[in-house]
Amino acid sequence: MATMKDIAKLAGVSTSTVSHVINKSRFVSEEISLRVNNAAQQLNYRPSALARSLKVNRTKTIGMLVTTSTNPFFGEVVKGVERSCYQQGYNLILCNTEGDNERMRESINTLLQKRVDGLILMCSSLEGERIDVFEQYPDIPVVVMDWGPMLFTSDKIQDNSLRGGYLAAKYLIESGHQQIGCITGPLVKHQAQMRYEGYKRALNEAGLDFNANWIIEADFECEGGYEAFNKMFAKDSLPSSIFVCNDMMAMGVINAANEKGIRIPQDLSIIGYDDIHIAKFMSPSLTTIHQPKYRLGKAAVEALLNRLEKGAIDAQVVQLEPTLVERSTVLNIK
């Protein structure tokens, strides 16, 4: 592998001159710069990213941790992170925690040892836990996405799940529904709890009764939605509509309903949450709450860069607002 000394010898200049040309750290005449660049090209010289990072104490690399899921929501957020990193001249190292707390801690340690400039965490399994390693790296900025209370300093990017749950239930009410069920995510998770709270707020505001048989806790996966609907079906007569707290579970609900000959939306109206890309291609296309996934990823990168390049100090919470997307799974019965 060619070095600066090799370039200097071929170009007939000093090593320091080569350094100034390549790093653009001092003015060098056009003639000498051309000789140096031609020599570097002939020798197929590639600057050492590691050496440069040690010199400037910056690797231009961001680490991101996510939990594996069949839900394409995560992939759509990662796409926003990756594209924003690329546009800002940063590399992204992506780690999958598989939902394992120990693996997550090991991944964080590995990324910090690789001298990443900042971390983005999208792993709700550690909600409310302390991560001691961050105390050893106080200068590494951390951005958390979609978590509840945290025991370490970080910026936080999230959607307004309370508002989103409220919008979903209110839309069903405005469509004439008074019997409204809810299939929630795991209520130990902050965002799942907030969507459920929004649902309850809308029903309370409208003076509607709650039926415990129509409220089922599930797991944010297709299988969870499928099983939750079967539990609801076995308990009692069905409501006229269900707020399903993410699109993946809504797919499972629609599949289970179809198996029982229940037509969507003629017999049962469904509204989901997230607006994943495939929601509009379902049959019927899914009415849902749009979560700005690309903007969530972009905002996470911007929050890191505010600390890295602009010297921001105070931790911030960036909350993006959800919106309603009307499609074909809610019947207006007014």
Q: Can you tell me about this structure?
A:
It is a single chain. With 334 residues, the chain is α/β, with parallel strands linked by helices. The protein folds into 3 domains: 4-47, no CATH class; 58-159 and 293-320, Response regulator (Rossmann fold), CATH 3.40.50; 161-291, Response regulator (Rossmann fold), CATH 3.40.50.2300. 44% of the residues lie in helices and 16% in strands. The longest helix has 18 residues, at 293-310. The radius of gyration is 26 Å and the shape is elongated. The model has no long low-confidence stretch (mean pLDDT 88).
Structural topology:
Elements: H1 4-11, H2 15-23, H3 30-42, H4 49-56, E1 61-66, H5 72-87, E2 91-96, H6 101-113, E3 118-122, H7 133-136, E4 142-145, E5 155-159, H8 161-174, E6 180-184, H9 190-206, E7 215-217, H10 222-235, E8 241-244, H11 247-259, E9 269-274, E10 288-290, H12 293-310, E11 317-320, E12 323-325
Parallel strand pairs: 1-2, 1-3, 3-4, 4-5, 5-11, 6-7, 6-8, 8-9, 9-10
Antiparallel strand pairs: 10-12
Integer average pLDDT = 88
The CATH class of the largest domain is: Alpha Beta
Say how many strands there are. Answer: 12
What is the level-2 CATH architecture name of the largest domain? 3-Layer(aba) Sandwich
Write down the Rg.
Answer: 26 Å
Oligomerization status of the protein chains: single chain
User: From the helix content, strand content and strand pairing, which structural class follows?
Assistant: alpha/beta
Number of helices: 12
Order of strands in the sheet with most strands: 2-1-3-4-5-11
Helix content: 40-55%
Largest sheet: 6 strands, parallel
Query: What string, H for helix and E for strand, traces the elements in order?
Result: HHHHEHEHEHEEHEHEHEHEEHEE
Q: What is the count of structural domains?
A: 3
Measured distance between first and last alpha carbons: 75 Å
- Per CATH, the superfamily of the largest domain is Response regulator
**Overall morphology:** elongated
Unreliable stretches, pLDDT < 50, 5 or more residues? none
CATH topology of the largest domain: Rossmann fold
